[in-house]
Write a structure and sequence with these properties.
The chain is mainly beta. 11% of the residues lie in helices and 41% in strands.
């Protein structure tokens, strides 16, 4: 996988491809979900506060619940060398807010392999906490104050960091200390898969490979892709076993009408999917329920996807993480965090289960 385009003909074709994809995604994002009502109410929730030191406080990108503690993580590294990637554990107080109680270093990067793990999601399965990196390429944003030459250089360079190509499994004891640490990479799977290999040289925010959601259910992991979004709006979800990913994985598909998966959470009757734009498209964020079955149209079509609600982000924020706090026969209790907003701007939502009026 080349970190930059040196073949200008191939580069021009890539730009044309990305332009076509962006146009198609923007158009697809305006289409209603075929498996949900064309319109949904926007959820209203209760803002909560994170107290204590929040690391990378404007870059919160993941949240989950572990042993009754809220776990949050950021997609930016911190520390004196900006190479330390932490998860933080927070405890809820009597007021319903949360306070940090411990920081756990997951990965320390370097200049050669990359500074950032680019934490994008958590999954909890008993005493095990899974931490996923984006497995994506990146292209720098343009600078309004920069020269043409500087911006052209940014356009023609794509950054590859091996540090992003990691999936960690942390085994936690009852006191939330790490007692086991395992790590794999999914890069080889992507490079050899007949579908995903087509997208491994494209930056994540331009419809290339970009994992942002992860959930655990029945001993398996489900990885939700922000990109690629495929023809007719289908998005892949990769199901696999951590111990033997290459032999066990398979791709399932959901149709999010041009959106990508920003996070996932396992619930008793399937999964919740937080959906939003792949790049900078002006489309809404949505919360959907998925029964966990393949939604690709066919004779064995058993997948079902239902739009639950629209999610409104705060100014400058992007819906990036959803943590299931509890569920009843009537509703799911969720906490949603927003990348780009101060301390993640957490909001607590009560969302009615599928089939019940919001």
């Amino acid at each position: 996988m080349s970190p930059c385009c040196t073949d200008w003909l191939a580069y021009a074709r890539t730009l044309k491809c990305n332009l076509i994809l962006s146009t198609a995604l923007a158009a697809a994002a305006q289409l209603p979900l075929s498996t949900a009502a064309a319109a949904a109410e926007t959820a209203t929730g209760r803002s909560v506060t994170f107290h204590g030191e929040i690391l990378a406080d404007s870059d919160i990108s993941a949240a989950s619940l572990l042993h009754g503690m809220l776990v949050i993580g950021a997609d930016e590294a911190v520390g004196a060398k900006a190479n330390e990637n932490y998860i933080q554990l927070l405890k809820q107080d009597e007021s319903g807010n949360y306070r940090t109680v411990s920081n756990i270093l997951v990965y320390r990067g370097d200049k050669q392999s990359g500074q950032e793990l680019d934490i994008e999601g958590f999954a909890v399965d008993g005493d095990r906490l899974y931490v996923i990196g984006s497995h994506s390429l990146a292209r720098k944003r343009f600078k309004e104050s920069g020269s043409y030459e500087e911006n052209l250089k940014r356009l023609t360079q794509v950054k590859q960091e091996n540090s992003r190509y990691q999936l960690f499994r942390l085994t936690m004891d009852a006191t939330n200390q790490v007692t086991g640490r395992d790590r794999i990479s999914l890069a080889a799977i992507f490079n050899n898969d007949p579908l995903l290999s087509r997208f491994t040289t494209i930056p994540g925010k331009e419809n290339g490979i970009d994992i942002e959601g992860i959930a655990a259910k029945d001993g398996l992991l489900y990885l939700g892709f922000r990109g690629p979004v495929l023809r007719d709006g289908y998005v892949p979800v990769m199901q696999l076993a951590f111990e033997h990913p290459a032999e066990s994985y398979k791709l399932l598909f959901v149709n999010l009408a041009g959106r990508g998966i920003r996070d996932m959470a396992a619930v008793s009757d399937g999964f919740l999917i937080l959906a939003g734009p792949v790049g900078d498209e002006q489309v809404s964020y949505q919360l959907l329920h998925w029964n966990g079955q393949d939604c690709l149209t066919g004779n064995n079509h058993t997948g079902k996807l239902q739009l639950l609600t629209e999610i409104t982000p705060p100014a400058g924020g992007k819906a990036e993480g959803v943590a299931l706090l509890s569920e009843t026969a009537q509703a799911y209790e969720l906490l949603i965090v927003f990348d780009g907003a101060r301390n993640g701007a957490p909001v607590r939502h009560t969302i009615k289960r599928p089939g019940l009026k919001q």
